[in-house]
Design brief:
By secondary structure, the protein is of the alpha/beta class. It contains eight helices and 14 strands. Helix 6 packs across helix 7. It starts with a strand and ends in a 13-residue tail after the last helix.
Length: 399
């Protein structure tokens, strides 16, 4: 039972928004048929999403009525920072930056100059097969998405997993063993993605995991264009996932690689007087770029899919392992000649790990590192924005 004083609306969108939020709240689902408001009370009911029903066998019922007596001292209601509110709302008024006002401002922001809704862009983040980045693609995409969201963008990170069937259906069916059909709540269909972290300002970061076919994933990415500035699709580049074969549904592709430097020389072995001796042979920037391409871009269909660019994650440098700046610049130019320009070099140090596992607290990142990471991620977004979507021939002989 929830009591409010005279003059305050029984219904509160802010309460429903918090209870339905996946980061700041318990991520509940609204039961639409039982929600009703009249002159005496407001009743809202919530239940757990289908993918988190373990231990949940009931319905949360929030009933709001008028208080029998006015409180002795009127207290100003606290604002919800998680909902983007930046000021204390007045009694009886819609709080500034409320969920409804926030959605209206997002709509105005996404309207183009011609009056039509501005469509967002979708991109695919790839990693070389068997590389360390391949198993951390979602985390890398979250870090890049966090940098873009801190810069004011609405970003959705979509991951693919064959274990995500219940996640896909969480808002559309409620299959709970032991819950009788007549008592089962009626769920209101909603957008499938959930918020991934709290982002100050006008940006946002949402996540979603899919397990459907390429056609269904393509439909979801198309749906996301109306709600987000950017959708980043990630998937392991192996035989169990879609790998780089979702390209018909995205506008661009870019590759993330763990690489500290380019080789300035190649070590070979020679037989001298019956003993194998190592010999170091200097290579040109063009040869270094070719060797680096062959070593680090395994499994990426470079002959079929246009790559907008490469993102290099730079581990801690070791003494003597860093090539000269001139040599690095020349190898970068050669890779650009191969159609793979370097878009950014991201530090791999934990001190710049945006989008940490605890999204309800501030990331343990100092202001200088956060600003440097955002600056490094900005060229990625600009290059992907300029990429021209194109029709890519099917990799299947019968396609």
């Amino acid at each position: 039972m929830r009591e409010v004083h005279q003059g305050v609306s029984f219904h509160d969108d802010r309460l429903a928004a918090i209870l339905s939020d996946a980061v700041a709240g318990p991520d509940l689902v609204t039961d639409g048929e039982s929600h009703h408001c009249d002159d005496d009370r407001c009743v809202m009911e919530f239940t757990a999403p289908a993918d988190r029903t373990c231990g949940w066998r009931g319905v949360l019922r929030v009933e709001t009525v008028a208080a029998s007596a006015p409180p002795p001292t009127l207290r100003r209601p606290r604002h919800f920072i998680a909902l983007g509110e930046t000021a204390f709302p007045s009694h009886g008024d819609v709080p500034r930056n409320s969920p409804a006002a926030h959605s209206r401002s997002q709509l105005r922001r996404r309207v183009g100059s011609g009056g039509e809704l501005a469509q967002g862009r979708s991109t695919q983040l790839l990693a070389p097969r068997f590389s360390r980045c391949q198993w951390d693609l979602r985390g890398i995409a979250m870090q890049i998405g966090a940098a873009w969201s801190l810069d004011g963008c609405a970003v959705l990170v979509v991951a693919h997993s064959f274990d995500a069937n219940r996640e896909v259906r969480r808002l559309y069916e409620h299959d709970v063993f032991g819950w009788s059909v007549p008592d089962r709540p009626t769920l209101v269909p909603s957008l499938p993605w959930r918020r991934g972290r709290l982002v100050p300002g006008s940006g946002s970061l949402f996540t979603h995991t899919v397990s459907d076919s390429r056609t269904d994933v393509g439909a979801l990415l198309q749906q996301a264009r109306a709600h987000f500035d950017w959708a980043i699709f990630v998937d392991c580049n192996d035989d169990h996932g879609m790998g780089p074969y979702i390209e018909r549904s995205v506008d661009s592709h870019f590759v993330v690689v763990n690489s500290s430097s380019y080789p300035e020389s190649i070590v070979t072995a020679e037989a001298r007087n019956g003993v194998a001796e190592h010999r170091e042979v200097a290579v040109t920037p063009a040869a270094s770029a070719m060797a680096w391409r062959q070593q680090h871009l395994t499994g990426i269909p470079l002959d079929r899919v246009p790559i907008s660019g490469l993102v290099l994650r730079q581990p801690s440098t070791r003494g003597g392992s860093t090539p000269s700046p001139d040599f690095t610049e020349q190898v970068d130019a050669e890779l650009a000649r191969f159609g793979m320009p370097i878009l950014a070099r991201l530090p791999e140090s934990p001190t710049v790990a945006l989008a940490a596992p605890s999204p309800t607290v501030l990331d343990p990142v100092d202001d200088a590192s956060r600003a440097a990471y955002m600056k490094a991620c900005a060229p990625i977004r600009l290059a992907l924005r300029e990429a021209e979507p194109c029709l890519i021939p099917s990799a299947e002989p019968w396609g």
